[in-house]
Structure formats: C-alpha cells, structure tokens
C-alpha cells in the first residue's frame, strides 16, 4: 500500500467518525448547524474558537456537549472583572505536615484541562487575559518560576456578549489573533426554536454519547494537517488575505479607505487549516475554493478593523470581506 493510498483511507475513516460526532452534537444543539460545524472546525484545526452571541443561545450547552462527544476533560470559568490570573492558572500554597515541616504544593487551576470554556472572556481584566493568552499560544503556563505543561489536546472556546459592553475590557488584537475562528451565534429560526422548546422543557433531556477520545482527536488533527491542498486553493487564500491588508500593493482602494488594520500571516495559516477541516467534516478528500469563500468571514472578521470614517458611513467588516471574496474569488461569502 502506498503512502497516498493509506492517507486517503485515513481521511475516509476519519470523516466517518467525525460525521457521527457531528450527528451526536446536533442531537442536543438544535438549529445551529453552522455554529456546530465551525466549532468542530476550530478544534479539528488544533485552534481556539470565539463564540459571539447573546445570552441563552446554547453556547455553554455546546461546549459541554463537545466535551462529552470528543471525550475531553472540560472545565468552565466565568470571567469577571475581579478574576485574577491565579484563579485560572493555579497557585502554590504552603502546607505543613504532622512532623512540623512545611513545603509549597502547586494546586492546579481550571486551565489544566483539555477543553476550557472561558465564559464572557471580555469581562476579565488585562492581566487575566494576558495569562490566558500565553496558555492559548504556548500550551503551557509559568507559575512561581516553573513551567507547567497543559494537557494535550488543549482548546479554548470563549464566549462574548456583543450586546452588553458596560464593564468589559475589549480583547486586544494580539489575543483576538489567537482565536482561529470567530463564530457568530444567531437566533434560531421559528421551526428550530419550536423544536428546542419541545426537546428541552420535558421530563428528559437528550444526552450525548462519546464518539472520540483525546487520542482519537489528536489523530484526526494529524490527518487534517496531512490533507492535500490544491494550488488553486492555496492561491485563493493568499489572494484574499493579502488583499485585506491596507497600505500594501495587493490592497485595493476600498480596503485602503475603509480598513485601519488587516490580517497577518496567522490568518492565512488559519484559513489553510480551516478549509482542510471543513473538507474532512464533509467527507471530502481535499478542500475547494468554495471552502475558502465560506470560511473567510469566520477567519478574517476578528483580525480586521474599520477606520473611523468607514464606521461613520455605516460600513461593516462583514461587508468589506464579502466584497473581497466577490472580487478575488468570484463567489459569495458565507452569511
């Protein structure tokens, strides 16, 4: 058996397992298929996801369900303005024994898990956000001068309320860039909301069953990184990301006028991984240019910012991205 044949078989087998996982999650998360797909996409790509939506849209339920279905050790932290780094990372405490000797012992914080839900992440102060940033990027923390590795895999799914901004600390660009995808969670349509009412207000609630475990997820992430990507898809990613940077030779007049800062190379890396994960979730052997167009908003919107004049004119980042996708790829971006 050639290496190429073995890889194709691994892609097909992994796609079948992921289809079962997606179906299992959908049993408890009704009417949010795109949200489920994007969240799975972020985890499969080895990254973190930022879930943006009003309260009551099943964001916490989604993270709990993913922890069960993917077989991950999951924790949840409610972020508040008085939350300190030690409340997340852990701390050393001085303990004594019966013999009178004393020694420091490290007590792990909730970040020592495989799937961390950072609820309302923008309510924490800059020091706490900075502590989380290191963990998200480096997969380890430093406490009392000692490096402590986090479990593998390690993923953060953070939530943010786009409506209520009083008493919040906007995430800095450096931290936003660490999120592979921004996942907008919208209200369900009427039929989906009816199904939610019937499914969640009875005497029993649907329970999720494990489909993967940590080792299986790591293996699936390895398959994603080995999936072939065609030259056309690669060029489409480069064309799109480079055109979104104001002040560069690839940017058009509209971007130079409207955008104050654009995506860096990490955006291209994220889009490259995301299109591979999307193909794997759909049971396909390779990503397409359509995947680039579909995932561009989730990858780019939190890595770009409008200038004051553009905001005053009523422009949106979503509109700028849609125009770029139409110009560079000749397609419509996902809503």
From TrEMBL:
Domain ATPase AAA-3: 48-181
Record domain ChlI/MoxR AAA lid: where: 254-317
Family annotation (SUPFAM superfamilies): P-loop containing nucleoside triphosphate hydrolases
EC number: 3.6.3.-
Sample GO molecular function, one term: ATP hydrolysis activity
Keyword Glycoprotein: no
Record keyword Manganese present: no
Key words of the record: ATP-binding, Hydrolase, Nucleotide-binding
Family: Belongs to the MoxR family.
The protein, known as: MoxR-like ATPase
Annotated organism of origin: Rubricella aquisinus
């Amino acid at each position: 058996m050639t290496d190429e044949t073995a890889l194709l078989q691994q892609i097909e087998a992994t796609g079948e397992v992921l289809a079962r996982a997606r179906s299992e999650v959908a049993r408890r998360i009704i009417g949010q298929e795109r949200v489920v797909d994007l969240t799975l996409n972020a985890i499969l790509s080895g990254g973190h996801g930022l879930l943006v939506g009003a309260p009551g849209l099943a964001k916490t339920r989604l993270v709990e369900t993913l922890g069960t279905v993917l077989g991950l050790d999951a924790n949840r932290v409610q972020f508040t303005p008085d939350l300190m780094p030690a409340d997340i990372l852990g701390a050393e405490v001085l303990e004594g024994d019966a013999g009178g000797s004393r020694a420091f012992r490290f007590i792990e914080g909730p970040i020592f898990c495989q799937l961390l839900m950072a609820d309302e992440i923008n309510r924490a102060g800059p020091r706490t956000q900075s502590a989380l940033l290191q963990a998200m990027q480096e997969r380890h923390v430093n406490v009392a001068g000692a490096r402590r590795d986090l479990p593998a895999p390690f993923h953060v799914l953070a939530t943010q309320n786009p409506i209520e901004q009083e008493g919040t600390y906007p995430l800095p660009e450096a931290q936003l860039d660490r999120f592979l995808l921004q996942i907008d969670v919208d209200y369900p349509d009427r039929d989906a909301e009816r199904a939610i009412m019937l499914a969640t207000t009875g005497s029993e609630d649907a329970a999720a069953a494990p489909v993967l475990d940590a080792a299986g997820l790591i293996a699936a992430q390895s398959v994603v990184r080995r999936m072939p990507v065609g030259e056309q898809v690669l060029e489409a990613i480069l064309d799109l990301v480079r055109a979104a940077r104001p002040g560069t030779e690839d940017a058009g007049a509209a971007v130079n006028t409207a955008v104050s800062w654009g995506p860096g190379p990490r955006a291209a890396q994220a889009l490259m991984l995301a299109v591979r994960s999307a193909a794997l979730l759909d049971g396909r052997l390779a990503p397409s240019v359509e995947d680039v167009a579909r995932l561009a908003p989730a990858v780019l919107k939190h890595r770009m910012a409008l200038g004051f004049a553009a905001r005053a004119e009523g422009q949106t980042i979503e509109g700028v991205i849609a125009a770029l996708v139409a110009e560079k790829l000749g397609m419509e971006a996902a809503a």
